[in-house]
Amino acid sequence: MTLLPVPDNNDTGPHICLAPIRGLTDALFRNVFRHHFKGIDAALAPFINPQRKALFSDRMLSDLLPQNNTTQPVIPQLLHTWPEDFLLLASRLADLGYTHINWNLGCPAPMVARKKRGSGLLPYPDEIISFLDEVLPKLPVQLSIKTRLGFSDKNELLQLLPRLNDFPLREIIIHTRLGSQLYRGETDPESFASCRKVSIHTLVYNGDINSLDDFSSLAGQFPGINRWMVGRGLLMNPFLAEEIKSFPGDTKANRSERIYHFHRDLSERYEEKLSGPGHLLSRMKQLWAYLISSFPGKEKEFKKLRKSSTRTQYMDSVNRIFDN
């Protein structure tokens, strides 16, 4: 199947990066999404799991191979905390043509945080500084960091940021929650404002940009910020980046049709890639948990979709959701 890209006739304004959502925003999803919806400038790939002394074969790095990422700039993300292994993988990514990688200091998953990775490393600033001291002089690419306000205390990041001023970081992406919150509870834009006062680096705002009103409110609060990371909001409303960048609006019918074609192309591609209908349904149901927000009043059909156990049942529910 050949995908025809949607032309970006007005691709200006704020820089919008697609956030990594593990289990969803892989290379196949990123390519199909970008062919159907405009406004995204780059994508941060889901993190690569640490491997000790791994050779990082093409199979292991398939999500990042250049031939699998043809529609937009992609930034690899590493979860490693061992400098030697981090540098080994960074060199492999540089060989693939990447010039920018991201270090994950934000993942809130308990299995990750318990190992002092992701946001679980934020309570240990000396270990973060020691890691950067060893890695950055040898790193063949630029480095950015994606982080949280802290793991259990927002002062963790506030105390770390001045120490990061000594390092040549490309940017720092701040998800305005604590790691202990996971994805629950309110974000904390006021703490982001405090972070701006103590950091000399380019900062990127991330966290609960789920509507144009959300973005407009934050943009008004932070007029000097022009770089934004959006994740779940783009899955809930695939037109959000277009709205933020003031692309010409579509009618409700045209929007529904565009989502229909996106869903058809994505499901066909996943059907070719994934092994068996069970994996396909699992992946697509995960997407619909967000996408159903674009179809108010279709909650009953979504409940049936979640319970579907065959592709026929699933498609019957999908068709009812798209049925006007």
Strand count, sense and barrel status of the largest sheet are: 9 strands, parallel
Number of helical segments with 4 or more residues: 13
- Please indicate the percent range of residues in DSSP E strands (runs of 2 or more): 5-15%
Structural class: alpha/beta
Order of helices and strands: EHEEEHEHHEHEHEHEHHHHHH
How many angstroms separate the termini?
28 Å
Low-confidence stretches: 1-10
Q: Kindly state the mean pLDDT as a whole number? A: 93
Strand order of the largest sheet: 3-2-1-9-8-7-6-5-4
Gyration radius (Cα, Å) is 20 Å
> How many strands appear in the DSSP assignment?
9
How would the global form be characterised? globular
How helix-rich are the residues, as a percent range? 40-55%
Kindly list the characteristics that best describe this protein.
single chain, 324 residues, alpha/beta, nine-stranded parallel beta sheet, 13 helices, 13% strand
Structural notes for this entry:
With 324 residues, the protein is α/β, with parallel strands linked by helices. Helices cover 42% and strands 13% of the residues. It contains 13 helices and 9 strands. It has a 9-stranded parallel beta sheet with strand order 3-2-1-9-8-7-6-5-4.
